[in-house]
Amino acid sequence: MVLENPGDLLRLLVVAVLVYPALVVILRVSGKRTLSKLNAFDFVVTVALGSTLATILLSRDVSLAEGIVALALLVGLQYLVAVFAVRWPPSQRLLKSQPTLLLRDGRLRHRTLRRVRVAESEVRQAARSHGFGDLADVAAVVLESDGSLSVINRSQLGDGSSLADVRDEER
User: What are the coiled-coil residue ranges (predicted)?
Assistant: First the structure.
């Protein structure tokens, strides 16, 4: 069972050599947004691309042409959804989670932390990684739609306009 058919190995090599450049071209044509920081929607598309690529490479039942069309279709649909989200902002609520305020003016939002399943230690770690030894010096910590934590110090806060689209459940 190590190698049932040497032709399968040759097929895999040929298909990989052909489909990989096709995927690179498709991704380059679709623009930077396709490979941007991942929110939940982008993550699903990325997993689907990986699964499709694996199926193309390993399944004899999928032709090279069908596989390339499937990859192009996934990337094309992701592109159309991204354009739709930019042109009709209310649709972003369906596609992306809203950034959420976890800490404001040095005070943790405990109820929010529980709801979004972020531990206090993760907020403290984010503050430390941004050079803060005291949470009182932190103006805000935001859980971004891609899952990262943004830390804003008091001197950088200014008028707070960067927090305009951030959900503050305890306000």
Answer: none
